[in-house]
């Protein structure tokens, strides 16, 4: 029974705080989170992305998951009652208190289950001992996750610096290209003006030479007729 309760609580656990949902909200990807947990995650990551699947959402205020909230409140109330009563739960087969944890099957059992054929050769330890071992494993796992998170943040910072450097480099290159082409345009315009001026001067000189020859020819004709 206790194993069933643990599984039920897992279904109503926020992936961020690892506790039963409080005021849950729903993202379009289908994942739910405590409202405060999601807002804090977004604030720290500076991205409105799902903490589970990393999909990005533009919504500032995700809708509340009222059905999940009601179920989570009920689950929290049940857990509070169990903690208040101090009950460890009873074995559904033998109605004995669940005092042991079978490490082979990963489930809570009673002393009669331990001596039964199913668990007789299994490694069974007291619940408190198993809980401490799991807590240690969780702490170690959390330390690894924090280390990976720190490494990820460092890599992200380096990537951001590299992206800024690439952007600045591209801007400088673009400015250099524009300046070089501007110089080329000025040179071409000056060359164009010089060549046009030379052509016009040559045309003027040729026109003047033709006019002079024409005038000399006319003068010779007049003298010849006299």
Give a structural overview:
- β1 and β2 (32-34) form a beta hairpin.
- The chain has helices at residues 2-11, 35-45, 66-85, 111-115, 127-225; strands at 24-26, 32-34, 100-102, 107-109, 124-126.
- The protein has 226 residues and is mainly alpha-helical.
- The protein is rod-shaped, with a radius of gyration of 43 Å.
Characteristics of this structure?
mainly alpha, two-stranded antiparallel ribbon, 226 residues, 5 helices, 3-stranded antiparallel β-sheet, disordered N terminus, 64% helix
> Numbering strands along the chain, what is their spatial order in the largest sheet?
4-3-5
Structural class, from helix and strand content?
A: mainly alpha
Count of separate DSSP helical elements: 5
Helix content: 55-70%
What is the H/E order? Answer: HEEHHEEHEH
N-C termini distance: 145 Å
Proportion of residues in extended strands: 5-15%
Contiguous low-pLDDT stretches (5 residues minimum) are: 1-7
What global shape is seen?
Answer: rod-shaped
Produce the secondary structure layout:
Blueprint (H helix, E strand, L loop, with lengths): L1 H10 L12 E3 L5 E3 H11 L20 H20 L14 E3 L4 E3 L1 H5 L8 E3 H99 L1
Antiparallel strand pairs: 1-2, 3-4, 3-5
């Amino acid at each position: 029974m206790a194993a069933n309760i643990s599984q039920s609580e897992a279904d109503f656990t926020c992936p961020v705080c690892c506790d039963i949902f409080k005021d849950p909200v729903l993202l379009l990807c289908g994942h739910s989170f405590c409202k405060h947990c999601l807002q804090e995650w977004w604030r720290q990551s500076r991205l409105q992305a799902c903490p589970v699947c990393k999909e990005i959402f533009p919504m500032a205020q995700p809708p509340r998951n009222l059905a999940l909230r009601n179920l989570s409140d009920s689950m929290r109330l049940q857990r509070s009652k169990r903690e208040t009563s101090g009950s460890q739960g009873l074995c559904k087969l033998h109605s004995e208190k669940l005092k042991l944890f079978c490490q082979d099957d990963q489930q809570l059992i009673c002393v009669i289950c331990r001596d039964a054929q199913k668990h007789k050769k299994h490694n069974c330890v007291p619940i408190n001992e198993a809980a401490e071992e799991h807590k240690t494993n969780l702490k170690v796992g959390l330390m690894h996750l924090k280390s990976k998170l720190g490494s990820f943040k460092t890599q992200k910072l380096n990537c951001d610096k590299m992206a800024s450097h690439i952007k600045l480099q591209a801007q400088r290159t673009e400015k250099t290209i524009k300046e070089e082409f501007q110089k080329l345009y000025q040179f071409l315009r000056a060359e164009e003006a010089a060549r046009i001026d030379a052509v016009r001067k040559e045309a003027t000189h040729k026109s003047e030479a033709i006019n002079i020859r024409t005038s000399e020819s006319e003068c010779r004709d007049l003298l010849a007729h006299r």
